[in-house]
């Protein structure tokens, strides 16, 4: 009988606890009354950069990091000079 009493007390406790969690608080019932946090604008990501292939070794790299030459784009000055010497 004593065990049944404690089981009922615990069940009532968890029922009340769950009932309170399910109800909206007074703070959430009126969202206009609460001050809103200032929103920080998020900077837009730059668009993806075009990738080019080195005409000498075939390595892919962004066009801003490539070296232009007579035969296309190159990853370094050494590859550009080797390619242009072989092409001449």
Automatic annotation (TrEMBL):
Q: Which domain of life is it from?
A: Bacteria
Task: List the residue ranges of the region (Disordered).
Answer: 25-45
Entry protein name? Pyrimidine deaminase
- Give the compositionally biased regions (Low complexity): 29-43
């Amino acid at each position: 009988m004593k065990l049944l009493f404690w089981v009922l007390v615990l069940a009532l406790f968890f029922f009340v606890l769950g009932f309170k969690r399910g109800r909206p608080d007074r703070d959430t019932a009126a969202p206009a009354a609460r001050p809103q946090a200032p929103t920080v604008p998020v900077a837009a990501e730059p668009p993806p950069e075009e990738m080019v292939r080195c005409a000498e070794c075939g390595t892919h790299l962004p066009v801003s990091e490539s070296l232009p030459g007579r035969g296309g784009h190159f990853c370094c000055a050494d590859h550009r000079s080797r390619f242009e010497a072989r092409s001449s």
